[in-house]
Amino acid sequence: MDSLQLDIRSAVQVSIALAVIGILLSLWIGFRSIRRARSLRFFRMRRDRMVRGWRLIFFAVVLVFVTIFLRMYAEPIAYRFFPPTPTATQTSTITLTPTITLTPTITLTPTITLTPSVTDTPTITPTPQVPLAIESVFESTITPNPEAVFSDLIFTQGIDPETYQPLNPGTVFQNPAGHIYALFSYDKMVDGSQWTALWYRQGEVAHYETKPWDGGSGGFGYTDWEPDPSEWLPGEYEVQIFIGQIWKVSGRFSVEGEAPTPRPSATPTRTPPPTQTPLPTRTPTPTRTATPTRTLTPTPSLTPTFGPSPTPTPAPPSQTPTPTRTLAPTNTHWPTATPITVTPTKTRWPTAIPTTLTPTITRHPTFTPTP
Questions:
Q1: Is residue 167 part of a domain?
Q2: pLDDT band at 73 (very low <50, low <70, confident <90, very high)
Q3: Based on the domain organization, do 234 and 136 belong to the same domain?
Q4: For 95-144, how does the pLDDT look when each residue is reduced to its tens digit (9 = 90+)?
């Protein structure tokens, strides 16, 4: 029955192959007959050839349906009339011949297995986060798109400003490192959302930049750092990119070689001027105050007179000399570190009080003659 099953399947496959060949031949002969009929001059012959060509094409279409029928229903229908019967197949078994087993004469005693006293437990790598000191200077209030994507960082010492292609890429740079860029491509960004780039050196933040995003939704970008050459210390560096507080991508590079020694800055040292010892201040000489002249009061003289007493003539009053105001000498100040203002002592001048002499009238005695 296995051979019958194989014959039925083979017959179906051969029938399908013959049908396909008949389809191709019918189409080829039919189209060829139609083309040749168009070139004939006689109507009857041309019509016969045309009818023959279209019949062959129609026959090819019928063969297509026959092929589909054979492929899908021929074998099931054949198996209904000739059902397959399973036949037991003899399976040969292999009998193993026992061989001589060698018995070891010396049994090796297992040695002591050293158990490690310290087992290294892998530590959990925390997700990078923005330090609070940097988060406090955020300016944007726009919520970033969490579906924004960034490519891996490419570190280079130069870029093409038109194509954003790296000019000297690498992961190991020799001192002096100079200007280093971290290139990346991005997509699904939102303008105005806060983005941050952190540059770590040996696990500590050495440089960072954070600002609202202004590069559009997609394209190429970079973060860079160009410190003083003496700040490129040898060691491992890591750059982390954040959108808001969401970490997106990180990259590492290393710097080898000692950093250049910083150049001494020519800062002029200001020498303080020598302290001037102030000269002793000249004490102004006090102005001598004029003493007023004492006014003498005239004493009237008694002159004996006979007859009517004459009117005494008052003596002219003595004039008090007006005191002369002496100007204070001008003080010449010596140069001192701190100018000292000398305030002259004001001397009040005596006020001249005019003295009015009132003459004393003395009546002369009148001599009366004695009889």
A1: yes
A2: confident
A3: yes
A4: 566 566 555 555 555 556 555 555 555 555 678 999 999 999 998 889 99
Q: Do 77 and 137 belong together in one domain?
A: no
- What sign results for the dihedral spanned by CA atoms 166, 168, 172, 176? negative
Structural domain total, the chain: 2
Domain holding 171, by residue range, is 132-256
pLDDT at residue 309, as a whole number: 46
Domain CATH number, residue 244: 2.60.40.1930
138 and 58 in a common domain: no
Q: How would residue 272 be classed by pLDDT, with cut points 50, 70 and 90?
A: low
Whole-model pTM?
0.41
